[in-house]
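Hey, resending since the last one bounced:
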Amino acid sequence: MSLSFIVPGLDEATSEKVIAILQNRLSQEQEAALVLKHAHWNVKGPNFIAVHEMIDPEVDSVLAQADETAERIATLGGSPDGRADSVIRHRTWKEFDLEGRQSTEDYLKALIEYYDSFIADDRKAIAELDELDVISSNIIQDHVQELEKFQWFMRSHLG
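The structure tokens again:
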């Protein structure tokens, strides 16, 4: 990786490690927005409109997280990779595999499971970033807080 510059207080090796962690998080954030939109389009059955309308603001929230992560990568002198093939190349998590028109309950259960991994991966990144760059760690901490809140919404919807 070639850095455009190095921010004060970080060396090149540390910056590269932080950027690699953030790129992985960016890829999952981007994928999560796609997964959520897929669910938004394909839920059906009881509580359809409630779940359909609950998901769209989360798409926006996750895209805002991706933007913040990408901008942090650029701030650190890196080049964020937002291409679709980058999501696949950086995937270290289980692929979301629910397809087609399914019940709101099935989609919520699948999304809750996806969020389990998403949140755990973010928490792992936080632990790594705490040792490398507290600013980047704080950004991901804020993201986890929002992800956990939405996961609570989904769990509460199921009862």
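The chain has a mean pLDDT of 97.

Sorry for the duplicate.
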